[in-house]
């Protein structure tokens, strides 16, 4: 009897184990099935409709010849280390006098900072991997790195944030990256809990300014903080938020692009669109304003802009397009017309639903008017959530020696194109479309150095007054912030020194800005394979559990078993 009781206890334990395993298998199978349906759907949301865009050339003089940019020479090459290559996330290069810094994710995905002294006999980099848990990135392409150097040479680092608590470090000893120390709060913990899009700017007085968004897509506010290098403290640059999404019945957030330094006229120029949800299709109302000090903002006509800027702020709207107009945030570019006045280049749908390039410019009354530049057919549907791939890119207009304007563009449609449209500077009508002049960046820099077909070259172009520098690495594609089953080995991270700055505007597809994903199609296939693999593992676990349960029921009690 005791033996039978012991055997029953033993069998009961196995039964409970098998039941738990079986329940876990069923639950896991259900969850993975849901993820497979929802995940696959979300991974391909932006690709639900095929990209049928045909980028037919603009009419004009096919014999037009562009000025040829002088070729640069590579005069230096230095490997910083190796970097994570599993997905694209923007890394950083900044030069301050003789000090050069690189912010990158190392082979273990940890945010790492490197420093070297230019012109020294030593060519080695001092590197420091930040020890904080906040410094380890996942699969989110929003987690880019921002670097800034203040007026006394201290380095400031922010990164690995997407709707996350502030992740920020600063050196306590100039030029020593090992002295980087985490600072949990800058000015107000209440507005530093859901941070995205960090950027360091330099104010008109030389102070370092930190820009970021608090909140998510559709409900975020944007802030500017000012750094006092003497007291080593941050304070709000403005008495209020720069942008407030809470305006009217619908909450929105501003997706803005601002120049990191003042232009030749002394202005910081800012453009933005508003978004009401996480879906890029809800972008609307392209706008512009400028400032000489990042504090006092004005419209293009010089009228003051009251802060915070809201969806209903008057005088700033460039193109009052509604939602579902096909505008991709942070893809618009500021340029100049023949008189040096600002222009804004961008892409949106035309009345037939095809993507087109437009240039907004000022008329005789200093009012914004938009001219359609292209007459493409077909469409790439601008829709979806997470980090998406822009299939159309455009540069700012720039003056040519003959008085015309050049407009660089790229199109990844069914007939890919990367070219220059020459515009009449008065009418903005196309004069010609010609191949882009060869980039002044040498092929040695732009060519792939690894043969892995899943990786692409990534560049950060950082011109200075003395020389130009390019940070180069290779990584896989954007995958809407979702994991990829296979990842290539860590890739070399290299800084090239170029002999002289280019004389022409680089192609808009050359290095992408932090919030400008490159034009490459996300691939959900590997994500789907990973989900199926996990589903198979869980199904096997369920089968093993049921087999153990049935076998234990068939086995007779054994005397002496415990």
Automatic annotation (TrEMBL):
> Superkingdom of the source?
Bacteria
Name of a matching Pfam family: BNR_4
Q: Where are the transmembrane segments?
A: 524-550
What UniProt keywords are attached to this protein's entry? Membrane, Transmembrane, Transmembrane helix
Spell out the protein name for this chain.
Uncharacterized protein
To which species is this protein native?
Subtercola vilae
């Amino acid at each position: 009897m005791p033996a039978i009781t012991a055997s029953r206890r033993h069998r009961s334990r196995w039964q409970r184990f098998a039941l738990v395993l079986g329940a876990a298998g069923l639950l896991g199978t259900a969850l993975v099935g849901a993820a497979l349906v929802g995940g696959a759907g979300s991974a391909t949301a932006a690709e639900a409709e095929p990209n049928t865009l045909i980028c037919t050339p603009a009419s004009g003089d096919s014999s037009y010849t562009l000025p040829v940019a002088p070729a640069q020479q590579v005069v230096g090459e230095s490997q910083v280390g190796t970097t994570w290559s599993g997905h694209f996330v923007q890394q950083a290069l900044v030069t301050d006098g003789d000090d050069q810094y690189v912010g990158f994710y190392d082979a273990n995905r940890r945010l790492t900072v490197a420093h070297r002294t230019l012109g020294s006999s030593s060519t080695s980099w001092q590197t420091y991997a930040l020890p904080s848990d906040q410094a380890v990135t996942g699969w989110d392409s929003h987690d880019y790195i921002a670097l800034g150097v203040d007026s006394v040479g201290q380095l400031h680092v922010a990164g690995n944030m997407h709707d996350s608590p502030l992740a920020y470090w600063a050196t306590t000893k100039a030029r020593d990256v090992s002295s980087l120390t985490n600072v949990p709060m800058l000015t107000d913990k209440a507005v530093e809990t859901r941070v995205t899009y960090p950027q360091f700017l330099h104010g008109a007085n030389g102070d370092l300014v930190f820009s970021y968004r608090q909140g998510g897509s559709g409900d975020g506010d944007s802030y500017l903080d000012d750094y006092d290098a003497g007291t080593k403290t941050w304070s709000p640059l403005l008495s209020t938020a720069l942008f407030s999404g809470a305006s009217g019945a619908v909450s929105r957030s501003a997706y803005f692009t601002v120049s990191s330094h003042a232009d030749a006229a002394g202005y910081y120029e800012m453009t933005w669109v508003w978004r009401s949800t996480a879906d890029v299709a809800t972008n609307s109302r392209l706008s512009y304003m400028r400032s000489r000090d990042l504090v006092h903002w004005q419209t293009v006509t010089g009228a003051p802009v009251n802060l915070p800027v809201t969806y209903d702020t008057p005088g700033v709207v460039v193109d009052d397009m509604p939602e579902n107009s096909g505008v991709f945030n942070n893809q618009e570019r500021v340029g100049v017309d023949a008189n040096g006045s600002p222009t804004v280049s961008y892409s949106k749908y035309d009345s037939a639903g095809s993507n087109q390039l437009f240039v907004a410019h000022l008329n005789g009354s200093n009012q914004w008017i938009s001219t359609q530049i292209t007459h493409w057919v077909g469409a790439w549907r601008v829709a979806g959530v997470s980090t998406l791939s822009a299939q159309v890119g455009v540069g700012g207009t720039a003056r040519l020696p003959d008085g015309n304007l050049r407009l660089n563009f790229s199109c990844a449609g069914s007939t890919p194109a990367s070219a220059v449209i020459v515009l009449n500077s008065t009418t903005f009508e196309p004069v010609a479309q010609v191949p882009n002049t060869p980039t002044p960046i040498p092929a040695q820099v732009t060519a792939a150095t690894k043969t892995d077909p899943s990786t692409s070259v990534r560049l950060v172009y950082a011109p200075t007054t003395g020389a130009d520098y390019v940070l180069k690495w290779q990584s896989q594609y954007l995958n809407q912030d979702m994991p990829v089953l296979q990842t290539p080995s860590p890739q070399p991270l290299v800084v090239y020194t170029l002999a002289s700055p280019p004389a022409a505007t680089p192609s808009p597809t050359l290095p992408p800005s932090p919030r400008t994903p490159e034009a490459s199609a996300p691939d959900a296939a590997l994500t789907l394979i990973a989900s199926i693999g996990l589903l198979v593992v869980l199904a096997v676990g369920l089968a093993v559990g049921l087999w153990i349960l049935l076998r234990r029921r068939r086995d007779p009690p054994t005397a002496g078993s415990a």
